[in-house]
Amino acid sequence: MARTLPFIAGQLALLITGTWLLTTPMPLQVGSGLALAAAAPFVFMVTTLVSGTEPERRHPVMTSVICGFGCVMTMFGVHRFGDQHQWVLWLALVALCLWMVWQRYVWRRPPAA
């Protein structure tokens, strides 16, 4: 599962950024949305990597819902507190896209024979 490591590193960087934003004067809704959008896929990827068993190949719906909800929280925060926070929304969308790409090209790929 070495293909998973770059995705984990990207989600971790976004999670650290979101956590850091919670300590700044940035509105809470914006930073917590980014942290939530990155935390759900990060936890799922790490759990999949660490567990020695082969996970089910069904779509992990709750992880996708939580990640999407983090993006929506960030979007509402940008709408409420101003466009100067737009860059955080882009980071939350990057977290969502990383999650989708990981599912498509890493997790759903059939295991090597």
Describe this structure in words.
- There is one protein chain.
- With 113 residues, this protein is an all-alpha fold.
- It has one domain (2-50, 60-107).
- The chain is built from 4 helices and no strands.
- The longest helix has 23 residues, at 28-50.
- It is elongated, with a radius of gyration of 15 Å.
- The two termini are 14 Å apart.
- 33% of the residues are buried.
- The model has no long low-confidence stretch (mean pLDDT 89).
Features:
single chain; 113 residues; mainly alpha; 4 helices; elongated
Mean pLDDT, as a whole number?
89
Structural class: mainly alpha
Can you tell me the residue ranges where pLDDT is under 50 for at least 5 consecutive residues? none
Distance between the termini: 14 Å
Proportion of residues in β-strands = under 5%
Q: Characterize the main sheet.
A: none
What's the alpha carbon Rg, rounded to whole Å? Answer: 15 Å
Structure annotation, total helices: 4
Brief account:
The chain has one domain. It is built from four helices and no strands. The protein has helices at 5-21, 28-50, 61-81, 86-107.
List the SSEs and their pairings.
Elements: H1 5-21, H2 28-50, H3 61-81, H4 86-107
Helix pairs in contact: 1-2, 1-4, 2-3, 2-4, 3-4
